[in-house]
Amino acid sequence: MGTGKEIIKKCYKTSFINALASNLTACITTIVDGVIIGHFLPHDAMSGYGIAATLVLLFLVLGMMFSKGTRRCLYNASGKGEDNEVLNDYYNTSVWSSLIISVILSSLLLVFANDITNLIGAKKVSMGIHEACVDYIKGIALGAPFMITGLAANCCIILDNDARISMISMVVMIVTDIIGDR
Description:
Layout: H1 4-40, H2 43-52, H3 54-79, H4 84-111, H5 113-119, H6 127-160, H7 163-180
Helix pairs in contact: 1-7, 2-6, 3-4, 3-6, 4-6, 5-6
């Protein structure tokens, strides 16, 4: 066990690597989605994608909220010397609650995709954009539980101080995104 300064440096390095990998993954998946949409779908599809993509931010914020809250609880419990059972309870509560909330939100998106599309600006005036946006919202709804729950669980990867796990999960996300676009 190192000094407090060494521990902080190691945690900072690992957090930086995780944040960098996460941002690179988001950039790569966005580029891949844009390339596939731009080359294989009509031009209305890109507009629909751009409008619907704003909803992804909502899910990212929710996932980050669970992640940051769980990390704070885990840090506090770990600092107080709590045993692994308490840490596991915090983790399980976060993952299960994020999964339940994301499934509820996804269900609402699926049911009200048409109305949400009108609300965020893709009115039925331009049917191609409207229909593409509805389709993307439904796709986002199907992926939201994985996105939110994955972010909530990610806090433990950072606490583990093993950047390889984070890198592997990012590569898996990129590959599954590319496969899902086919």
